[in-house]
Amino acid sequence: QAWRPTLGGPPPAHARPGMLAVGERHTVWLRGDGRAASCGSNACGQRNIPEPEAGVSYVQVAAGGSHTVLLRSDGRVVACGEGGCEIPETEAGVAYTQIAAGCHQTALLRSDGRVVVCGGGHFGFDASDLGASCVQIACGGSHVASLRSDGQVVAVGDTVFGQCEVPPVLCVQVAAGGSHTVVLGSDGRAAAFGDDACGQCRVPEISEAGVAYVAVAAGGDHTVLLRSDGRVVAC
């Protein structure tokens, strides 16, 4: 039975949320029992999450504009909703290890370091440009970014605002927003590239000694950064 939030106390152990993903009009989260739950709009079927069969659980969730993507414990991926839901099967010995969802596209990281992109409409994503040694992926509004094993970030898709023009700096994480890309450097500094109409690329410098950025996230028109002292800043 699905647990719904109330004012009567915490959820039971099996329903306590783990990983959380937020789409345009819906939210998806992993439960403690390996199933997934959701709330919000279901206009496109993005909340019609299939139940995993016995012995299989969900290990990652991603939420896009009008779709939901789920990574299973057996390395397979399922999706529901509209846009980026045509998930290709992998060949024998290869599994999916990471998922990301954008406005109309889905990015899938394979165990061999290659990236598969589904959907995206007329932007024509060429995942081969991302290389064959990727370790992390991120989906923006109409672009996909990947972090390679050599620390370089490569992005493909719509780059009208320069969101795919990431300079060759050594990075440890990448995030993608509506029309901007955010990178976390190996030196603990962060930078953003692309549309800056709302100030989302104006990442503040850290002035305190011994403090660095340790994680980055990007929304439609904003950027959020976690500092090593536990503080969070946004622009």
**Overall shape:** globular
Please count the helical segments.
Answer: 0
Secondary-structure element pattern, one letter each = EEEEEEEEEEEEEEEEEE
Radius of gyration: 18 Å
Broad structural category: mainly beta
Task: Report the portion of residues in β strands.
Answer: 35-45%
Task: Kindly report the oligomeric state of this protein.
Answer: single chain
Name the helicity range: under 10%
Strand order of the largest sheet: 1-2-3
Instruction: Extract low-pLDDT stretches.
Output: none
Number of strands: 18
- Intertermini distance: 40 Å
Largest sheet: 3 strands, antiparallel
Mean pLDDT: 91
Give the secondary structure arrangement, pairings included:
Layout: E1 20-22, E2 26-30, E3 36-40, E4 58-63, E5 67-72, E6 77-81, E7 96-101, E8 105-110, E9 115-119, E10 134-139, E11 143-148, E12 153-157, E13 171-176, E14 180-185, E15 190-194, E16 213-218, E17 223-227, E18 232-234
Antiparallel strand pairs: 1-2, 2-3, 4-5, 5-6, 7-8, 8-9, 10-11, 11-12, 13-14, 14-15, 16-17, 17-18
